[in-house]
Amino acid sequence: xxxxxxxxxxxxxxxxxxxxxxxxxxxxxxxxxxxxxxxxxxxxxxxxxxxxxxxxxxxxxxxxxxxxxxxxxxxxxxxxxxxxxxxxxxxxxxxxxxxxxxxxxxxxxxxxxxxxxxxxxxxxxxxxxxxxxxxxxxxxxxxxxxxxxxxxxxxxxxxxxxxxxxxxxxxxxxxxxxxxxxxxxxxxxxxxxxxxxxxxxxxxxxxxxxxxxxxxxxxxxxxxxxxxxxxxxxxxxxxxxx
Length: 242
What we know:
Elements: H1 9-18, H2 23-48, E1 54-58, H3 68-82, E2 86-89, H4 95-105, E3 110-115, E4 132-135, H5 138-147, E5 152-154, H6 159-173, E6 182-185, H7 187-204, E7 217-219, H8 222-233
Parallel strand pairs: 1-2, 1-5, 2-3, 3-4, 5-6, 6-7
GO biological process, one term: cytokinin biosynthetic process
GO molecular function: AMP nucleosidase activity
Family: Belongs to the LOG family.
């Protein structure tokens, strides 16, 4: 079938990706992509390297301002900023906006690592004007989260939030980065997933070590989040992860 024979954009994208390309087209496209990837890493390193110790807040872009978790994320970010930590979010709406808003109201550093997504991603107005970074590549953006965060606060979210959570857990579990705090906020939201991890991955399938369950904590309040961070950093100096 020809590209114009498909009815919807998703089918057209798949067909275009599967279309046979010449070696010269492949080589040219891939070579230029390398330069684009390099530029995103360089710009990210230069901007983030000057910011100082930060905590990343992950969560859904779809959470509304009246939602209890939006309000809680705003309180958490406010207290984090007052405790001396900068706040990094994905730069978009929902929980990300709440995180940047709380940091902004607390007079702290408010960083947004933005990426353009269909229908839901646009940068929020609470990011410091000189700390609003834009990315085309998810994997470059994730490196910036991990390299420059000394703690991870994970609010309720969808597939993207779960991806960010398990990325952090995997890197800590494999000792690729230090054992920084991972704090899951919302016992009601997270308990089902953690029960499944314990019952299936740990006890039934033995694909996860019981000790790996100690890599994160589940809390319900902003004070608990700050308490976990403060207790951890009484023992360690703040520094980039790698």
